[in-house]
Amino acid sequence: MLTLTRSGHRPTIRVLNRHAQIAASKHEAGSDKFYKLFAEFVRLFIASEYDPGYLVGNVTDVTRAYWAFLNCIKDEVTPVAEKV
After folding, report:
1. Is 78 helix (H, G, I), strand (E, B) or coil?
2. How far apart are CA 37 and CA 83, in angstroms?
3. What are 30-56's pLDDT values in tens digits?
4. Cα–Cα distance measured from residue 54 to residue 65, given in angstroms and rounded to the nearest whole number
5. Under a CB-based contact definition with an 8 Å cutoff, are residues 17 and 65 in contact?
6. Threshold 0.90, pTM exceeds
7. Is beta strand 77-79 parallel, antiparallel or unpaired with respect to 28-30?
8. Which of 76, 13, 6, 7 has its CA nearest to residue 42?
């Protein structure tokens, strides 16, 4: 079982936490694209054998998936109207 506690995984932990916050939120909703991009990041990160170096050095598919997901949050997460 993988434990993401090393300092090299801080960006990964932040992205996982942000996804979880939105997925569990009653105030925000992610679009289908938001969830698709997150799934792609996770798939590629697993395929890389959890290599934390995707943000250091050469750009990889994991790097591109990370930034695609992170950048989509501003456009693909919307407020949820409160029910009265």
Report:
1. strand
2. 29
3. 999 999 999 999 999 999 998 888 988
4. 10
5. no
6. no
7. antiparallel
8. 13
Q: Which residue has the tokens 């798939």?
A: 43
What dihedral do alpha carbons 35, 29, 13, 10 form, nearest 10°? 110
Q: What count of other Cβ atoms lies within 10 Å of the Cβ of residue 27?
A: 10
Q: How far apart are CA 59 and CA 46, in angstroms?
A: 16
* The two structure tokens encoding residue 18: 């942000």
Tell me, rounded to whole angstroms, the distance of Cα 34 from its chain centroid.
9
In angstroms, the CA 3 to CA 20 distance is: 17
C-alpha 79, offset from chain centre:
18
